[in-house]
Amino acid sequence: MMNRIKEIRKQQKVSQDKLANVLNMSRQAISHYERGDREPKLATWQKLADFFGVSVLTLMSDDEQPEVTLKNDVPTEVIYKGKKYKVITNE
User: Fold this and answer.
1) pLDDT tens-place string over residues 19-57
2) Is the dihedral of CA 50, 44, 25, 11 positive or negative?
């Protein structure tokens, strides 16, 4: 499993069409993300996480665990599958 988008979507009984409509993207994009054919940008990960009410790390998780860099106990960067993501907060 590349990520948990499909698993969590199905747990919450949400169709790909509904998720795509709510997030203003195509159903095909959702399908590509679920299959791991494409990697969502961090902003898209955050939209998905907000919609499902889970953390980005929960959605990204699979057998490979992301490496999180903390500064003052606040995540500042995530490295996942060799890609670096900056963490943007409102604080």
Assistant:
1) 999 999 999 999 999 998 999 999 999 999 999 999 888
2) negative
Cβ atoms of residues 52 and 8 within 8 Å: yes
Euclidean distance between CA atoms 38 and 73, whole angstroms? 31
Which pTM value belongs to this model?
0.68
For residue 67, the SS3 value is strand
Q: Give me the phi and psi of 83, to 5 degrees please.
A: -105, 140
User: Which residue blocks in 1-91 are alpha helix, DSSP H?
Assistant: 5-11, 16-23, 27-35, 42-52, 56-60
Q: How many CB atoms lie within 10 A of CB 7?
A: 13
